[in-house]
Amino acid sequence: MAMASLGRRRATTLLCSSPSHKLSSILIRRFSSGSDENDVVVIGGGPGGYVAAIKAAQLGLKTTCIEKRGTLGGTCLNVGCIPSKALLHSSHLYHEAKHSFSHHGIMVGLVEVDVPAMLAQKDNAVGNLTKGIEGLFKKNKVNYVKGYGKFLSPSEISVETLDGGNTTVKGKHIIIATGSDVKGLPGITIDEERIVSSTGALALKEVPKKLVVIGAGYIGLEMGSVWGRLGSEVTVVEFAADIVPSMDGEIRKQFQRSLEKQKMKFMLKTKVVSVDTTGEGVKLSLEAAAGGEQTSLAADVVLVSAGRVPFTAGLDVEKIGVETDKLGRILVNERFATNVGGVYAIGDVIPGPMLAHKAEEDGVACVEYIAGKEGHVDYDLVPGVVYTHPEVASVGKTEEEVKALGVEYRVGKFPMMANSRAKAIDDAEGVVKIVTEKESDRILGVHVMAPGAGELIHEAALGMQYGASSEDIARTCHAHPTMSEAVKEAAMAAYHKPIHI
């Protein structure tokens, strides 16, 4: 239990380490200043941007947020994380009603899909949440400008407002939080009807008979799951040898088998040579990644899901000399500052995982630095989740990464088939895997494939944040019966032996 005690001491130290003299006058400034200049201007109202703006206002900084979409929340809330989870949940309910209810003694008649109603539920959820962020802006006195911003100087932003006007917003500190955009593929034109991005895949008016997904990453597999459950024949074409390359190899293999049992087909080590839309459907020409004879594949809809790229178009960052790398990502230091004084960047426009929750952490830390406080983001402990069924979640290092470092390690695993709650609800596919340093028992990585894995992973993330060992988790009482007991048992397996297998 020594590691847990060290974690508690560390937490106490952190809470007590900010002397009162750091709470400078900047933190108690009110919004009654007659100056037009802001302390902070945030360009972009997505998860990183709106969180940064609210945090800045909470710290007493006069703040303006500029957003071109007209609704807050960015890609994540409007056409990403939130609407996709709404459709994943709705399609899962349909699939359960059609295939699982009878196992539980629930007999229903004809089960049908009403796509417009499903999309309306999704849109309602999105609308309520975007309005909620506007309410938070008003509550925290964040000035909200709707329009497209571009740099005039390191302290001035010209905004073409959505109502057709133009205004200049001045700020001592400018934070670029413009997020990312869909990565296109050469020779493939996205029309959001037959060839769609994730945005179009969230708004299909009917269930396509055949759906081809180009790219076997998080987004492609989630959207493939949605339409596959609703009746589409789904084929995933992936250039690489594996799906979700960042995933732990052992978990990945189980995950792919699970998706294949759900009738999702995979064509790995395969590249798309061309796409023909001249006929009624879509015809794809394919060949092996290493080259060879071409084959064809027909589809009603093709989803291009080959990743995302930083979005800085029209910002004129080059005009003020902001440095970027060859991928178009803005380069920043440990305080999120660019090479141009007073200009910062966070979220998907800088190196690191393109995840909404990572962007939020960036936003908070960046503003804390600006306010003279200390910020912190541990990029080694950013959880990742694939919201299929079962879900797959991970935090920390994969077994392959630990092995490559030359660290001696142990692995503890526990199958969901041996978890009483999972068996009780007849949903027991998956496993929990914990990788620890052999000598110290410190947890290096946790990987979960299970129903609700995205919730289970945070016990591991919190433990790892404070240097927990597998024994720390194993000796923590977990309520019975719960899915989280599988995490406890995997921890027991890592340092000694599990009880229930």
Structural class label:
alpha/beta
Average pLDDT score: 93
Give the distance, in angstroms, between the N- and C-terminal Cα atoms: 24 Å
Low-confidence spans: 1-35
Annotation, overall tally of beta strands: 21
Strand content: 15-25%
Summarize the biggest pleated sheet.
Answer: 5 strands, mixed, barrel
Radius of gyration: 24 Å
Helix content: 25-40%
Your description of this structure?
- It comes from Salvia splendens.
- This protein is α/β, with parallel strands linked by helices.
- The longest helix is centred in the N-terminal third of the chain and has 26 residues, at 115-140.
- It has helices at residues 2-16, 47-58, 74-79, 81-99, 115-140, 198-201, 218-229, 249-261, 356-370, 399-404, 420-424, 453-465, 470-474, 485-495; strands spanning 38-43, 63-67, 143-153, 156-161, 166-176, 180-182, 195-196, 210-214, 233-237, 265-267, 270-276, 282-288, 295-299, 301-304, 308-310, 343-345, 384-386, 391-396, 409-415, 431-437, 443-450.
- Strand 9, helix 8 (249-261) and strand 10 (265-267) form a beta-alpha-beta unit.
- Strands 1-2-3-4-5 form a five-stranded mixed beta barrel. It has a five-stranded parallel β-sheet with strand order 7-14-8-9-10.
- The chain starts with a helix and ends in a 6-residue tail after the last helix.
- The model is unreliable at 1-35 (pLDDT under 50).
- It is built from 14 helices and 21 strands.
